[in-house]
Amino acid sequence: MKRFLYFSKKTLPWVIALMAVMVVSTVMIYRSIARLPEERIIIFFYQTNVPASNAAQWVQTLKEENPEIEYAEAQCYTALEGYSSQGMQRGWTYITVRLAKKEGDIFILPKSQFDIMEESNWLLPLDESLFGSFEGGFNKDMAAAGAKQLGLKDSAALFSKMKAGTLPVAESQNALAAADPQGMAENYQQVKSRTQAALHTIVENAEFQGDKNILAISSGTSMQIMISDLTDDTAKNKPLANAAVVKIVYKNGIYSVPEIGTMKYVEAGKQALNNNN
Questions:
Q1: What is the pLDDT of residues 70-94, one digit of tens each?
Q2: Which DSSP letter does residue 36 get?
Q3: Of 249, 209, 204, 215, which is closest to residue 9 (Cα–Cα)?
């Protein structure tokens, strides 16, 4: 389950949900941070009036130009039911879900659709910290590697320090990056740079549009790193529970973080549901 960031600005009236997605290119093709080995490529094709054979041609061309690719496939999401508006919406929903879940490497779609996503801030780099070759494995194995890097006894010792908030998130992320045998994991500075850049973009857009409250969806470690130098509260080093909220306030050019990991909004939602039953 995703965690949430709640941004508050005194002059702002809307609430906006943002997907955590990373963009690399800016036209019709963009690629997520590679979470698959480079020799495995998956393409998602949003097809309106483009022949389905084009997707197969992309795969063939990729293999011809990149012989190191051992496996490649392309999946088409088309405007169904004779290109009706309902069918186009269904195809668009399918591909945006794939994009949000980072299930592919390359996404191909009409520039008009890309522009909609870009203008709606769907493509801000708020996704979780990239754990490199540890992705898809067990947390205990990744923690054990990080613990060894930090000179701790084992994964239990690492988890204990994290839960207590005594291990700075910068140290834990850098340890995991250093321990990654393939060198693919992001380090602390890389995550902080992209997430704080996204934060600044959110604020700039809110100021321009006159918005007041923004709800952004992200993940635990990236959220911890985003606020790591915005507050002295040691709670910033504690893991965030599912659906926890971090509240960031921007006023007079200064950020503050009055709430870290609060579950009160979840409880309020539960209460509201109970009252309606």
A1: 777 777 766 543 344 444 456 666 6
A2: S
A3: 249
Residue 164 β-bridge partners? none
Positive or negative torsion for Cα 138, 174, 41, 101:
positive
Q: Provide the pLDDT for residue 102.
A: 61
Long-range contacts of 196-204 (CB under 8 A, 24+ apart): 196/226, 197/125, 198/124, 198/125, 198/126, 198/226, 199/7, 199/226, 199/248, 199/255, 201/121, 201/124, 202/7, 202/18, 202/121, 202/124, 203/7, 203/9, 203/250
Quote the pLDDT of residue 80: 46
Q: What pLDDT was estimated at residue 26?
A: 24
Least confident of 109-113, 217-221, 272-276: 109-113
Which positions ≥6 away from 249 have C-beta within 8 Å? 7, 8, 9, 255, 256, 257, 258
**128 or 121: whose pLDDT is higher?**
128
- How many residues in the chain? 277
Structure tokens at 54: 């084009």
